[in-house]
Automatic annotation (TrEMBL):
Record-linked SUPFAM superfamilies: Homeodomain-like
Entry protein name: HTH tetR-type domain-containing protein
Short name of one Pfam family: TetR_N
Domain HTH tetR-type per the UniProt entry, residue ranges: 20-80
Keywords: DNA-binding
Claim: Flavoprotein is one of the keywords in the record: no
Length: 201
């Protein structure tokens, strides 16, 4: 009988769970690099170093840099989209202004905790196979905000939604540079409220 040598060690109760854990670790490392250093930093070698896995293990799950980067971008947006959608749905009162406030508050909290869509993640540096998906995910990110803005009856929903999102992104940069999160959130909400009142006139 032929001896094929020892079975490879797995880090989970089953092989399937082992693969899930490995893939999750790789995507997590890729997300960290994407947020901290940009799309150009997400390479199999860098992700292998960050995750503590061999480069061959990274290629086992993602055969190209483009596939690895696409997975990082997808995971970054999906987590943010889910959190924002839940926050807006659970906003006290359920009125449009409360839902916008919930969106802003959670968006800033997510950004302070982790790099993501509010950190100027653009299409620059992304491979072509990523760009269409990023646009789809960005549209999904904006959807709860856009719906609440539209219910306010503003004259130009697209413009106002973009300006509110821009205010959040600007506030994120302030927090990144050391400004207090709670203070920045309160100021951003006051600024947005004044803008919404003017837009509804």
């Amino acid at each position: 009988m032929r001896d094929n040598g020892p079975m490879p060690r797995i880090d989970a109760p089953t092989v399937a769970e082992h693969h899930v854990m490995r893939r999750r670790a790789i995507v997590s490392a890729a997300r960290d690099l994407l947020g901290s250093a940009g799309a150009s930093a997400v390479t199999p070698a860098a992700v292998a170093g960050r995750s503590g896995l061999a480069r061959t293990s990274v290629y086992q799950y993602f055969p190209s840099t483009g596939a690895l980067l696409a997975a990082a971008v997808e995971a970054t947006f999906v987590d943010a989209n889910d959190a924002l959608a839940d926050a807006v749905a659970d906003a006290p009162g359920g009125d449009p202004r409360s839902r916008i406030h919930a969106y802003v508050q959670v968006g800033l909290r997510l950004a302070a905790r982790d790099h993501g869509p509010f950190h100027q993640l653009t299409l620059t540096g992304l491979p072509p196979e990523c760009t269409d998906r990023v646009r789809e995910l960005h549209d999904a990110l904006l959807a709860p905000l856009r719906a609440a803005v539209e219910e306010l009856g503003v004259r130009d929903t697209t413009l106002v939604t973009g300006l509110v999102f821009g205010a959040i992104s600007a506030a994120v940069q302030l927090v990144d540079h050391g400004r207090d999160l709670d203070e920045t959130t309160a100021g951003t909400l006051a600024f947005i409220d004044a803008g919404l009142a003017a837009a509804a006139c």
